[in-house]
Specification:
8 strands, globular, three-stranded antiparallel β-sheet, three-stranded parallel β-sheet, alpha/beta, 212 residues, single chain, 14% strand
């Protein structure tokens, strides 16, 4: 019903509430699909909302006013860096029903073998390469596969980059026991530690020095 109000728009700002906070707006569809979805490849033809608009999610309307008032240009000299395509142990079909409820059953450090059992996401490497090209950065700024580790993220000076992208699994808060915060999945080490257990949590992201 909001579609007529968006005529001519290319960028839509969304302030979700309640259950909608867990729904990425881009996965909504703008019209019914022409044919029944019978295989994974067919999802390429679905008219996702993200194909029509650039979407930005905000915590509140007042945050937009604050951002416009206080925002400054980033002092970072480099345009882009990205992390993705972590080395994980299963392909998409095998891992589709994986239960991640026990990732933190052993305490604050994630079970790296369960992390390793998540599905591989090889197309994320292509996605990051396309982003790097679009933003005028070379592939040397990409950290893929064995280089896409939590330890690598924490060791780099990320304040040098205006855009930092992660193309990988995102685990929602409540998906796993022991931790009530979301996390990004990266290549797990042989043995998990507080520095690197294959999951970069939201609180760890908050401690990164960023100009992005």
């Amino acid at each position: 019903m909001a579609e007529p109000l968006l005529e001519g728009a290319t960028h839509v700002l969304v302030v979700p509430d309640g259950a909608l906070t867990s729904l990425p707006m881009g996965v909504l569809v703008t019209q019914p699909t022409k044919d029944e979805i019978r295989d994974f490849e067919a999802y390429r033809e679905v008219p996702w909302l993200a194909k029509r608009y650039a979407l930005t999610t905000l915590p509140s309307v007042s945050s937009l006013r604050a951002l416009r008032h206080f925002a400054k240009g980033s002092p970072a000299p480099k345009p882009f860096t990205g992390f993705g395509d972590p080395l994980l142990g299963k392909d998409t079909d095998e891992a589709r029903g994986l239960d991640v409820a026990g990732l933190f059953a052993r305490g604050a450090i994630a079970d790296v073998e369960l992390v390793r059992g998540l599905s591989r996401l090889p197309e994320t490497a292509t996605e990051l390469a396309a982003l790097a090209k679009a933003l005028g950065a070379g592939n040397k700024v990409l950290h893929l596969r064995e280089a896409a580790t939590e330890a690598r993220v924490k060791s780099l000076d990320l304040s040098r980059y205006r855009t930092v992208a992660f193309a990988t699994h995102g685990l929602m808060a409540g998906d796993f026991s022991g931790v009530a915060e979301p996390a990004l999945v990266l290549t797990p080490p042989d043995t998990g530690t507080e520095q690197d257990d294959g999951l970069l949590t939201a609180s760890e992201v908050a401690q990164l020095n960023l100009n992005a």
